[in-house]
Amino acid sequence: MPSYTPPLRDMQFVLHEVLNVTDELKVCPPHAEIDADTINAVLEEGGKFAAGVAFPLNISGDAEGCVLDKTTHEVRTPSGFKAAYQTYVDGGWPALSCDPEYGGQGLPFVVNQCFYEMLNSANQAWTMYPGLSHGAYECLHAHGSPEQKALYLPKLTSGEWTGTMCLTEPHCGTDLGLLRTKAEPQADGSYRITGQKIFISAGEHDMAANIVHLVLARLPDAPKGSKGISLFLVPKFHVNADGSLGGRNGIHCGGLEHKMGIHGNATAQMVLDGAVGTLVGQPHKGLQAMFVMMNAARLGVGNQSLGLTEVAFQNALAYAKDRLQMRSLTGTKAKDKEADPIIVHPDVRKMLLTAKAYAEGGRALLCYSAVLLDKELHHPDEKVRADSAELLALLTPIVKAFLTDNGFNAAVMCQQVYGGHGFIKEWGMEQFVRDARINMIYEGTNTVQSLDLLGRKVLGNNGASLKKFAKLIGRLVEEEGVNEKMAEFINPLAGLGEQMTKFTTEIGFKGFQNPDEVGAAAVDYLRVAGHLVFGYFFARMASVALKQIAAGSTDPFYTAKLQTARFYFAKLFPETATLMRTARAGSRVLMDTDAALA
């Protein structure tokens, strides 16, 4: 059976020693009173919930799955899920980073992200039920009418109701311009919505009294394509003016998907048959409103894979210390045993350190991104808000794609550490692999994220956003460039930073002549950008660790951090050279292949 220990020490290191979040956020009026002790106390209690309540339901929830009653269209979640959710609500966890105006606790978003990392490690399938509600909350908070906010936000904040996003249809996934769901205006200002949605995570369940669906649909006069999409709020049960629930709305679950992983989450086919909804935002501007939820979800999906990376690493590490297999190549290490534990073997260590590096780099990136969002929303300086939003937009596709690619690869490596036992259910590793696989697909496949990064976020503004991140690297290089102990971290980072400008310009020029060049290079480009970002954070973390050791600290945590950073720069960071070479290979070897793909 797997186990899980919340990585509180590493979270505290990233938050307080690397990012200095309290200093960063105290200038924001809503967070003026925030302090490290409060953050640590909240995360400690959150870790207890994750490890003690959600984690024990992970394997059983996967085995049991969700059950649809085709007569009533109701879904029963796995045993214990509903009770765990009630414990979550009773503890006030849904309100952690929500607006106090609607009953929230008003804590920084970065605190909520750290809490959710632990939940994702503990039980991704369960965590997706409350997790999607945050996206619905953010969307309505930004674009809802006063009436919608008053009726729905307090219930989403408290967790009494949950939320979903209903985008995908049977004939279209990423290309939302093809969607066919219709919305007919009614005399009372509402709309009757008819259509079918698929792959709706947490689309139907028994854990909350109501489900708030945010549905993309077309008005009768809508222009074709993505410019003709509107967003509607469609509750499972009608909501009366006083907030009480009325009768069942015309939206129901027509079926559950039979999936590779996340069996404990109800991935639903939703049928809308004249369901009553209200418009969110402006007509034909639905994607703008939905992008608030989608961007929140993309950060959330990266966090899901971070959680799985951490829990897979923890269990593979424990197994490697215990499993006996052969003798060390440099001589017997466990003289009192028949064989040495497999952790003495170099390639086992490589797999473990890869997972560890991916987890620690991902944690730093996600926390930094969450701080950017906090500053975008609440910083008093307009320029800081704008700069934070721009940097976050640049980093979001990297968070989603780089962390989920890394998370799946790490889970597979950790499964490999187990050998044959990794293929057996009772050890839990094969579930982590299956659950991690979906994260590379939804909220825009990782190829779509790569096209978004290179096409929109980099080339779309002639590299202006990338240059802003490059300035952060340049500042670090300038500060640490004369420090000999930092050379092994700073030199490769500075080198890639210099290459990135030329690399980006070259791809952009080729793409201007032939757009397929961008498509051919995008996935490789995103991984290079991901390593540039990870390299920056590993260099920062190494700098802190070196300073602590120089100041006399004997805490092994700092030694471990330096060893992980050295491994990352020596064994993982050099992937960028191959990636730049394959990106430069161009589109011809892909597109001039009709015979090969006949």
Descriptive report:
There is one protein chain. With 598 residues, this protein is α+β, with helices and mostly antiparallel strands. The strands form 3 sheets. Strands 3, 4, 5, 6, 7, 10 and 11 form a 7-stranded mixed beta sheet that branches. The chain has a two-stranded antiparallel sheet with strand order 1-2. A two-stranded antiparallel sheet has the order 8-9. The protein has 18 helices and 11 strands. Strand 4 (182-185) and strand 5 (191-201) form a beta hairpin. 51% of the residues are buried. It has helices spanning 8-18, 21-26, 36-54, 58-64, 81-90, 109-143, 146-158, 286-322, 346-378, 382-417, 429-438, 446-458, 464-480, 487-513, 516-550, 556-572, 575-584, 588-591; strands at residues 67-69, 74-76, 161-166, 182-185, 191-201, 210-217, 230-235, 237-239, 245-248, 251-256, 267-280. Helix 6 (109-143) packs antiparallel against helix 8 (286-322), helix 10 (382-417) runs antiparallel to helix 12 (446-458) and helix 12 packs across helix 15 (516-550).
Quick take:
The chain is 57% helix and 11% strand. The protein is of the alpha+beta class.
Task: Walk me through the topology.
Layout lengths: L7 H11 L2 H6 L9 H19 L3 H7 L2 E3 L4 E3 L4 H10 L18 H35 L2 H13 L2 E6 L15 E4 L5 E11 L8 E8 L12 E6 L1 E3 L5 E4 L2 E6 L10 E14 L5 H37 L23 H33 L3 H36 L11 H10 L7 H13 L5 H17 L6 H27 L2 H35 L5 H17 L2 H10 L3 H4 L7
Parallel strand pairs: 3-6
Antiparallel strand pairs: 1-2, 4-5, 5-11, 6-7, 7-11, 8-9, 10-11
SSE order, as H and E?
HHHHEEHHHEEEEEEEEEHHHHHHHHHHH
Give the oligomer, counting copies of the same chain as homo and different chains as hetero.
single chain
Distance between the ends: 48 Å
Mean pLDDT: 96
- Based on CA atoms alone, the radius of gyration comes out at 24 Å
Number of DSSP helical runs: 18
The biggest sheet amounts to: 7 strands, mixed
**Structural class from helices and strands?**
alpha+beta
User: What percent of the residues sit in helical stretches (DSSP H or I)?
Assistant: 55-70%
How much of the residues is beta strand, in percent?
Answer: 5-15%
Task: Give me the count of strands.
Answer: 11
| Molecular shape | globular
Enumerate the spans where pLDDT stays under 50 for 5 or more consecutive residues.
none
